[in-house]
Amino acid sequence: MGESKLKYVYFIGIGGIGMSAIARWYKFRGLEVSGYDRTPSPLTASLEAEGISVHFEDDCTRIPADAGSTLVIYTPAVPADLKELVFVREHGYRVVKRSLALGEITKGQTCLAVAGTHGKTTTSTLVAHILTESGAGCSAFLGGISKNYGTNLLMSSTPTVVAEADEFDRSFLQLHPQIAVITAMDADHLDIYGDLQHVQEAFRAFASQVSDTLILKYGLPISQDQVSARILSYHFDDAAADFHGGNLRLQADGHYIFDLVHPGGVLKDIRVGALGWVNVENSIAAAAVCLQYGVDPQRVRAAIGSFTGARRRLDEHVSKPGLTYIDDYAHHPAELASAISSLRGIFPGRKITGVFQPHLYTRTRDFAHEFAEALSALDCLILLDIYPAREEPIPGVTSELIFKDVTAPRKMLIRKEELMDVLAGEELDVLATFGAGNIDRYIEPIEQLLNSR
Questions:
Q1: Rounded to whole angstroms, what are the CA distances from 427 to 82, 274, 431, 451?
Q2: Cβ-based neighbour number of residue 92 at 10 Å
Q3: What is the DSSP-derived secondary structure letter of residue 179?
């Protein structure tokens, strides 16, 4: 639909992180934006504060009546039998998935995309930050809230857009980037893909749509004969990669300084503004994109130093002598393992207590053993019940599947309603909360509890 005819954009599932960014974009373009979501959240509250009307009942009377001038965007996370979704499909509205809407927005612009089963939110947020800080400018659709800007959408008149390319539901196949990064190709979303082979096939299809440069985490199974873009590789510290870190130094405050070795030389003494070794690697990936795009290396270095991260990604909430609280979105075993090992690197010799809320019955069933292995690296595990998100319960699939195999020195399995009472009675040193469900509702109460100690 040409934007000239378009007056209204209606979102089904407007509170999602990717959906809300697109809603903000259309609002910025001067269109009438509204939508439905199942539950209120800090994100829906901020949309309402920006003048976007949001409601929380499945109510077809709230949909703009003029189908001819309304675009409906929905997320695949909403159930197919939702009354509003059925209504717009039956009444002649143009109805598109979030991924198609993002694909259309990025057409005709220079698209820089970050894909991967983890690391993509921080990396894409950092690419957007470097472009913004360096003066190059960009619009950006992010899968998390940038702590530097307090939003998941950046707007600019520069015709360059940074997009987080999500593999869920094969969404990223709607994007045709000039430069793209792939950070990881692990088994995930097996409810959609079935197995690792199909995950990797989808990533290869995405890679074949990149026109100029594909920046791959070193060792990923994509070869030059499968894509038309030039392939460059990056790695935390492997000297065989085109972009890699050297001379890594950990500062007393938990931040790293490193030298970036790249095809054009060495960029010395980059301080990483975000915590943990995992953000050294994310910085190398983001720097690779921006150097290929043509940003001045000194500006890349400065921007990595002023980057404060993405909300819920190794996000430090309490930091006082002998008591630290960090929250992280990790919800896949590989993410948990790298987050916990990052914490071990930042806080050597300290006792780490982790609270984990599993996300999805299918993911718990498919990876119970790997979750147990990753969580066993904690000193103490507090495991909560599964957050179902879009799924119905699966008989026999509970957090007990993970819990029984955890070998951490201490572990307990509790309902989330008991969490605050349990934490109040614990001797804590470094506390971390992990998960993609509604565990973020506990961040403020936990901060208040720890700050009162």
A1: 46, 27, 10, 14
A2: 10
A3: E
Of 103, 122, 68, 57, give the one whose Cα is nearest residue 313: 122
Same domain for 270 and 160, yes or no, is yes
Q: What count of Cα atoms within 13 Å lies in the side-chain half-sphere of residue 77?
A: 21
Which residue type occupies 57?
Answer: E
**Contact 420/445 with Cβ under 8 angstroms?**
yes
Cα separation, 174 vs 300, whole angstroms: 29
pLDDT the model gives residue 3 = 53
Is beta strand 70-74 parallel, antiparallel or unpaired with respect to 94-97? parallel
Residue tagged 């001067």 (tokens): 30
Give per-residue pLDDT as tens, 58-114: 999 999 999 999 999 999 889 999 999 999 999 999 999 999 999 999 998 999 999
User: What are the backbone angles phi and psi of residue 173, rounded to the nearest 5°?
Assistant: -75, -5
Compute how many other C-beta atoms are within 10 angstroms of the C-beta atom of residue 391.
16
Q: Could you read off the pLDDT of 236-267 as tens digits, one per residue?
A: 999 999 999 999 999 877 889 999 999 999 99
R_g over Cα of the chain: 22
Look at the chain and report how many structural domains it folds into.
3
* CATH code, domain carrying 260: 3.40.1190.10
Whether residues 49 and 177 fall in one domain: no
- Token pair, residue 63, equals 């949909």
Take residue 38 and report the two structure tokens written for it: 């199942």
Query: Comparing C-alpha atoms, which of 191, 190, 277, 263 is closest to residue 230?
Result: 263
Residue 210: closest CA among 221, 224, 199: 224
Report residue 387: phi and psi, to 5°: -90, 120
Compute the distance between CA of residue 111 and CA of residue 315 in angstroms, rounded to an integer: 28
